[in-house]
UniProtKB/TrEMBL annotation:
It comes from Dipteronia sinensis. Belongs to the BolA/IbaG family. InterPro entries: BolA, BolA-like_sf. Its main location: plastid. It is found in: Plastid, Chloroplast. Transmembrane segments: none annotated. Residues 1-43 are annotated as: Disordered. PANTHER family: PTHR46230, SUFE-LIKE PROTEIN 1, CHLOROPLASTIC_MITOCHONDRIAL (PTHR46230:SF3). One of its GO terms (cellular component) is chloroplast. It comes from the Eukaryota. Keywords: Chloroplast, Plastid, Transit peptide. GO terms for biological process: iron-sulfur cluster assembly. Residues 7-17 have a biased composition (Basic and acidic residues). This is Uncharacterized protein.
Length: 129
């Protein structure tokens, strides 16, 4: 299966519902290439896990859950359900877009199982930026 940057994957939850996981979105950052201001505990965990495992040269994590208020994946949650992630890492060298995304999903599996409903990812190598 080949996906382009605008493709979408479905991830099922333990309750049997499917949550949409987008594969492309640009997000904003501060002058240091980071976006930690305003992140709640889930956003901080996402950032820390990706920093530790992928040693990115650029990482932006943006909580956009407020844009999905009332959405089925948000009701009954702590509110941190939808995120945009832009990551640039040498760890992606030689990996297809799908493999890059699977790597990130694997690193964030606990979050996906505990209420992370949607994750929009832009994953590039330094030479692609």
């Amino acid at each position: 299966m080949e996906l382009d940057e605008n493709s979408e994957l479905k991830i099922g939850s333990e309750r049997g519902e499917n949550s949409s996981v987008g594969l492309s979105s640009e997000v904003g950052a501060d002058e240091n290439g980071t976006n930690s201001g305003g992140l709640g505990s889930r956003g901080v965990r996402i950032r820390e896990k990706l920093e530790k495992e992928l040693r990115p040269v650029e990482l932006e994590v943006e909580d956009i859950s407020y844009q999905h208020a009332g959405h089925a994946g948000v009701r009954g949650s702590d509110g941190e359900t939808h995120f945009n992630v832009k990551i640039v890492s040498e760890e992606f060298e030689g990996k297809s877009l799908v493999k890059r995304h699977r790597l990130i999903y694997g690193l964030l599996q606990e979050e996906l199982e505990s209420g992370l409903h949607a994750l929009s990812i832009v994953a590039k190598t330094p030479s692609e930026v």
